[in-house]
Amino acid sequence: MRILFSALFAFLLCSNTSAEVNIKNLRSSRVYSSVLKEYRDLKVLLPNEYDNTYYKYPTIYLLDAETNFDVGIEVLSFLMDNHFIPPHIVVGIPNTDRFRDMTPVDSVMNKNIYKTRGGADNFIKTLEEDVFPFLTENFRMNSQRLVMGHSYSGLFVVYAFSIRPELFDKYLAFSPVLWWNNKAIVRDVDSFLSNNSSIRKQLFVSFAEEAAEMLNSCKSLISSLETNAPSDLKWHYAWMPDESHYTLYRKSLMQGMETIFTDYKYPDVQLLVENGVEAAENYQRKVLLSYGRNEKLPYSLIESVCIQLKDEEKYNEAMAFLKYSITNYPERAESFFYVGEIYEKVNQPKEAVKFYEIAHNKDKGRWDYENKFIAMQKLLIELENNAQNSVDL
Predict the structure, then answer these.
(1) 3-state class of 41 per DSSP?
(2) How many beta carbons lie within 10 A of that of residue 71, not counting itself?
(3) CATH: 1.25.40.420, 3.40.50.2000, 1.20.1080.10, 1.25.40.10. Which one for 269-392?
(4) Where in the chain is CATH 1.25.40.10?
């Protein structure tokens, strides 16, 4: 499935996507690899909420961390802080020998350039036997894992997807070097897809304006996915002709995360207006089931929906959202005030004054709430006097 350039993504590119990373959430660790017989450094970023919860968090594994960790955590922090993706623990793994660990097989065409090529299987063992157990012991992690890589580490991501799909749940490969070993990985993926009727994973691949051989390899992979991917494999690709192999990382990371976690983003105002409070409740259930997080829509979003429905005189629908708002945000005076406005609109002043009074008591600093409450009290007295005068006559 090709990804089109979304309006949201355009907004994100135009805005400042470099969130301020809280240095208090950064950790540095070392783990000894019994497979590679060497120590491996690990760079860890914890979610902002980590110390205030008991959650176990999903993990993002960021490869090539010696060059991509800083830009990676800036973008990921922005996405987490703005609710585009759930809170994650981010683990950066710097290379000690990139071409050894990221290349899956001995490549004849590169044997004189990269003497230690072809060690991806050992790196997978290192992750399984050393890195994962160490991190699980030292941090609160659940079993959900995402891996992302660029260029040669993008090749590793595609290789891990094809040979050990159970290792991760989500795979992001940015401009992967698929021509390696005469495009062997493309044939491996094609065989993997053809021989499996169910692959419940997510895969995102991006590629830029590449050299001819690189571009043809990427197109061959996409063709294989289009032809052979089972229906439960959620895969997407992004063609970025305005980028080069070396410049697409940030854009790919933004777009890949937006795509992979599209169901985590808050529904927009118009969707809620058209589908009612059930859409808000469905979103909460979906996030709870998919991500284990009991989240409510932000008050600002609910308020926007209520105001639009109220202005469109869809009072029953507005009242349903206001009930939802009061249940989830009982401390907010605005919701009670909006209920009062609707009762006033439909000529039920006795009900209106009750809610104006609640709004006034909850926020005595709002002079407009006080004035409305006093005016409605006066109106009720006037209506009662008029009614009594009618009886006397």
Answers:
(1) strand
(2) 14
(3) 1.25.40.10
(4) 269-392
Indicate where the chain has its CATH 3.40.50.1820 domain(s). 7-260
Question: What's the rounded Cα separation, in Å, for the pair 47 and 91?
Answer: 11
The DSSP code sequence of 277-339 is HHHHHHHHHHHHHHH-------HHHHHHHHHHHHHTT-HHHHHHHHHHHHHH-TT-HHHHHHH
The tens digit of pLDDT for each residue in 191-229 reads 999 999 999 999 999 999 887 888 889 999 999 999 999
The angle subtended at Cα 21 by Cα 17 and Cα 22, nearest 5°, is: 150
How far is it, in rounded angstroms, from Cα 228 to Cα 122? Answer: 29
Distance CA 264, CA 56 (A): 18
Per-residue tokens: 265: 């983003």
Neighbours of 241 (CB within 10 A): 10
**pLDDT tens-digit series, residues 294-317:** 888 999 999 999 999 999 999 999
* pLDDT at residue 275, rounded to an integer: 96
Q: Label residue 292 exposed, middle or buried (CB < 10 Å: 0-12, 13-18, 19+).
A: middle
- Taking only the tens place, the pLDDT of each residue in 131-176 is 999 999 999 999 999 999 999 999 999 999 999 999 999 999 999 9
* Assigned fold of 7-260: Rossmann fold (3.40.50)
